[in-house]
Amino acid sequence: MKSVVYTRTGGPEVLQLVDRQVPEVPPGHVRVRVVVSGVNPTDWRWRSGQSSALRFAEQVPHQDGAGVVDEVADDVTELRAGDRVWLWETAFGRPTGTAQEFVVIPARHAVPLPPNASFELGAALGIPALTAHRMLTVGPEAPNRLAPGALSGTSVLVHGGAGAVGNAAVQLAVWAGATVIATVSNARKEELARHAGAQHVVNYRQDNVAERVLSVAPEGVAIIAEVDLAANLSTDIAAIATNGVISLCTYGSGELLPIPSAPLLAKSVSLCCVYTYHTPRQAKLNAIADVNQAVADGGFRVGDVHGLPLVHYPLHQVAEAHAAVEQGAVVGKVVIDVGAGE
């Protein structure tokens, strides 16, 4: 089978396309024929060594993907060969990412894909959707689960509403009944955020975000999904409601940020760092179930008309795909076409 691997950290050039044996399936595992692999910023951060050192002699990148179950271990009863599935955290603590034709993973990391969902959609879930779910549910007054009506009466501010995590946060929050305000940097991204379902969109380069937010939610928003705390902290302090939560899911390299304690204390604000790999087990199970239900309900979709354009690369161009994501050269979700579908 064809696999993309790297044996040292560095730039996209460390990625190599190689031939490997199709792996056997140990107890508790399934083998999935990968159709589409999803690329996330976490993939290039790991490959570059920015997030962690190389743990295995040979690493296949990419946490997310979708495909068809090829074989199941004898002790696996919840899945069977031929099932369409989406995959999450396949390479966390393992050398087995989805940038290859077949991947063997613990059975719980393969989730039945709803009949209405494409493999492209399945490959776009994983890191972005599970991160967004945690950001919307981690606050002290937030619901533990998302479902239609769970966020009714709640206002949510999503920074970077046209990014993959931002798009997921917008779609999930709208599906759960929230009023969503999204920030963007240009007219194209404003269009995408509106397509995702955001009822209010603010161009942060042209408008005063805090003023616009407070015109929609005079008492402030209950939840802020944050992707650039250093740039947005003063805005967030002004826009957050009492007992609100600022959920942070990423960082700038080398970033050091003084925290203004007094205004945060005055509102009893929670500042939560969301690193999806460390989400508590039950919260992760809740997120998987809720995201899958949102997909089944049509509340989470991909493509231009749903605010998340898909940019396709073939398996032999994974290095180019990594470079595009790392350089911010594309708007939308980068996916790798690994194999044929049905």
Structure at a glance:
The protein is of the alpha/beta class. It contains ten helices and 15 strands.
The radius of gyration is 20 Å
CATH architecture of the largest domain: Alpha-Beta Complex
**The top level CATH class name of the largest domain:** Alpha Beta
Mean pLDDT: 95
Sum up the overall morphology in one term: globular
N- to C-terminal separation?
18 Å
- Return the domain count: 2
CATH topology of the largest domain: Quinone Oxidoreductase, Chain A, domain 1
The helix-and-strand class reads: alpha/beta
Strands, count: 15
**What is the strand content?**
15-25%
- The CATH homologous superfamily of the largest domain corresponds to Medium-chain alcohol dehydrogenases, catalytic domain
Helix content: 25-40%
Count of helical regions: 10
Instruction: Detail the poorly predicted runs.
Output: none
Biggest β-sheet strands, sense, barrel? 7 strands, mixed
Helix/strand order, N-terminal first: EEEHEEEEHHEHEHEHEHEHEHEHE
